[in-house]
Amino acid sequence: MKVERETKVWTMREGDGPAAEKAIAEAAGLLRQGGTVAFPTETVYGLGADAANTAAVERVFAAKGRPSDNPLIVHIADRSQLEGIVLPYGEIARKLMERFWPGPLTLVLPARPGAVSPRVTAGLDTVAVRMPAHPIALRLIAAAGCPVAAPSANRSGRPSPTRAEHVRGDLAGRIDGLVDGGAADVGLESTVVEIDDGRIRVLRPGGVTPEALRQAAGCEVELDESLRAPLDPQFGEAGAASGAPRSPGMKYAHYAPRGEMVLVAGEPEAVRRYIEAQEAAARLAGCRTGVLTYDERAAGFRADAVLTLGSEARLEAAAHRLYDALREFDRLGVERIWAEACAPCGIGLALMNRLAKAAGNRLVRV
Ligand code: TXA
Ligand code: MG
Description:
By secondary structure, the chain is of the alpha/beta class. Helix content is 32%, strand content 19%.
């Protein structure tokens, strides 16, 4: 399939005024005509297409180089759009929507047959839906007048884009449009959950934490088996998860910088010593090295690139910076990277999940 084309870019900072109005109308028009348009959400940038239009959805897969068995999230602007694409759902789902929509929570719900393209659901009988909490995303979807299928707007396998420049770097010439609305807030993709037998199962951790889900729905919350390995104190070898992940996308290499990354967990001083020794040996051997750490310890490292995610005490901010940092290592030509693990609590669960993926599950506990 031919993917080279001209990518139209609209820049919007305030989001108001006639220029923004016209840009939204143009971008929405492209979506309605079967085009592919990247747009900001509060989590990361998405690459959108009309969810009912199979040819349009195929363009999204082609632009990203995404495996076709990995289903897409459908984005809606209001609850009336939801009823058109899903079958009746239960009380737990309703409570979660009321508490977290618009926001970074994706619900896997029973799909209404024929409502979205089978390419969106990858042939499953469920559909993943979310209502993003970003004014530009909501206006664009409302103006398009159709549910919008949108995976993260990166080339498959690369870190998700938290800024328009990231989208441009990965996809310029491969998509029809890009709405540049500045940096994304959360910086990590939405939490994906399914509801099974009165329980919530987290398929992908994100901005909405298990604790927050439990509070809102008043039921048990469990982590999909594939997520448990990095949390297991025994981990050390390739995250030995048993069973296939229930969220098809979680089985692929993801979020990876070009350099080889290792995630190091343990008592901070032991972690620092381990990284220092490994890094020094690699640097002596002629490698360009990188360390991903926190402000508290950044001064202690001598690598070619020492990047910090901010203070260890503020993991929300760390999540916000992660993908930018991974892309920065690429920009600096770093070949080997050591990243410090964080406590897998609250947003730290999502951060550890993405770090482990970016490290291709190379996890060391010292
Ligand atoms: O924050 C986000 O969710 C961003 C923004 C753009 O909204 N989108 C995003 O989409 O991260 P994507 O395609 O990169 O990730 C979608 C995830 C994948 O892990 C996929 O396997 C899972 O959702 N998923 C989609 N449909 C599913 C389904 N029916 N059942 C289980 N998992 C599903
Ligand atoms: Mg993605």
